[in-house]
Amino acid sequence: MLCGRLDRHPRQLIPARSRLPHGEQVDLFVSNVEKEFGSVARVVSADAVPGAVADYLAAQNLAGKLVMAPHPELRAIDWSSRPLLEIREGRAEGSDMVSVQHGFAAIAETGTLMFPSAAERPTTLNILTDTEIVVLRASRVVGAYEEAWDLLRSEIGAMPRNVMLVTGPSRSADIEQALELGAHGPRRLHVVLIEDAGSSEGPT
Amino acid sequence: MHVATSSAFKENAHRALADTGLQRALARSGSSFIARRAAAVAALPEFEQLRDTARDIKNHTLGNLDFYLEAYEAKVLAAGGQVHWCADAEAARTAVLEICENAGARTVTKGKSMIGEEIAINEHLERHGIEPVETDLGEYIIQLRHELPSHIIAPAFHLNMEDWEEAFRKSHTDLPADRVFAERRDILTEARGKLRSRFLAADVGITGANFLIAETGSSVIVTNEGNGDLTQTLPRVHIVLASIEKIVPTIEDCMSLLRVLARSATGQDFSVYTTFSTGARRAGDLDGPEEYHVVLLDNGRSAMIGSEFQDMLRCIRCAACMNHCPVYGAVGGHAYGWVYPGPMGAVLTPGLIGVEQAGHLPNASTFCGKCESVCPVRIPLPKLMRHWREREFERHLTPAAVRWNLRLWGFVARRPLLYRMVTRAAVLGLGWLGRKRGRFSRMPFAGGWTEVRDLPAPEGDTFFARYAREQRSRPLS
After folding, report:
1. What percentage of chain B exceeds 70 in pLDDT?
2. Cβ within 8 Å, pair A183-B28
3. pTM for this one?
4. Per the CB < 8 Å rule, is A6 touching B287?
5. First and final CA of chain A: distance in angstroms?
6. Who among A112, A145, A180 is closest to B184 (CB)?
7. What's the CATH number for A16-172+180-197?
8. Can you tell me the ipTM of this complex?
9. Cβ pair B188:A175 closer than 8 A
10. Segment B96-123, tens digit of pLDDT
């Protein structure tokens, strides 16, 4: 009986707030990211990603030097359209200031990004740089955490070494219980959201 | 082992009440936690149902703890990790030291871990020539000041801005004298800069665990700063310190508990970083530790299974109970004298270090019930404190005067007629004596009470007498 419960991993109560048509789930995700002090740029296609990244860095007055996840979806993007972006693929090192990470899935309920570790999605890109930019397809936005785990179970299978759920940039309230952004992890979290076909197909 | 001063709670409390810095910190921080939790709860209509769900998941797990712990261990092993079963703090310290020594460790970074405090791992590592570096901002300054945390999720709850500046100027010897700490941001930036090189240089990273998942063999940590992730990702070896009751069956169960954890703790909908770690670095991975160890501590917990204190093992360490406690709010965490303060500490501490040492803690409660009313897993904290008071009485640990008075009261209370006569005589007598001033500023045998406030003189009659009178005068219908 107990083994059965582990195998079935039944869902418990899921709050109603994310039980929405997909388009509204994407909107809820965006507003929750912004509520948690992250930012979102919505772009119409993958071709627009390099421009969105370059514009964001320029607006923040940051250098266009990136360490990028060696993920096929990011590699497929034509980054040469923005020749001033200097891109290295791999894990982050202590000297890297800006990372570009691949968003596996995202959860509307609380504006949370899911990053399962893999050779093409190194964990250090989530935590070691000053600024993390996440490239996410809108079709990968789900309502509740449980739905993101279902995607992970069906597409990856066994539990990856590390799965991070990230909600906004790093912060601390340890000094006089007042919130300050920019503790040990990234000071900025920016999502470039590609409005791919999946998101517009959803019932509205 | 930290020397517990719980037996000196009264003296500790007196000192705390006279500590102006502490009182300023308590006044500032207490209400903000309460307001933030209330706002988060109000924004989630299902919150009360989720509390029931959370309680039921924990009860189910505790009822089958042996099964889930064994299932968990099998999954950790399958993912290339190791589980070190430790009956007590000594065994856990030995296990951690051995892993560190095998790794040739010189420095160890640490994420926040209450189990680390419980087994006093820092002192043990230092004694053996290994430097532990606390990386949670609150824990970092606590380490600089050689103190214990005063709160389970906000270790530096008792400190003010000037304390931070003072500790940094004393410890960061390279700090220029003209460096300004005008804002909290300046403190944060200094700590971030200092700890960055420690993260990158550490040989071993030690974290706690908010949950362990039997289904996958994962350990879960929840942080806002990201220090826990840097701690467990960058060094070659990751050690997880966890106690046995942290286990939950599945990922879904864990998510249900996470839905009530952050809301109850900081009033956030969700913490910034919620991270599931499962075993060591996989083939092809570009980062992550090469070794993954779980040091699994019992330290008296399994003895609570099946006892009247089993409900306490549901605790998910959110700190809502202490944030809402009038006693904690008056004296702060250090007065409790050991690792766990507040209502949850008043129940857990006697279980872990003995009621002989910690008997004062379950007595330091007004039984207002606020703690139980906000507990996300519905632990009946006042009831459990009452059980400790009974144990204390049974074992003759209560002072003689208290015992005699309780016995006398018990004798009278078991004889209703006598009880009514005695209470009525007292009420009428005191009412007559105090008929002019309406209050007493001194009272024999109650000096401790009247020393700091007046006792109002009773007016009228006892409740019983009045009730009987009104029953008689009620017209028959």
Report:
1. 99
2. no
3. 0.93
4. no
5. 41
6. A180
7. 3.40.50.10420
8. 0.96
9. yes
10. 999 999 999 999 999 999 999 999 999 9
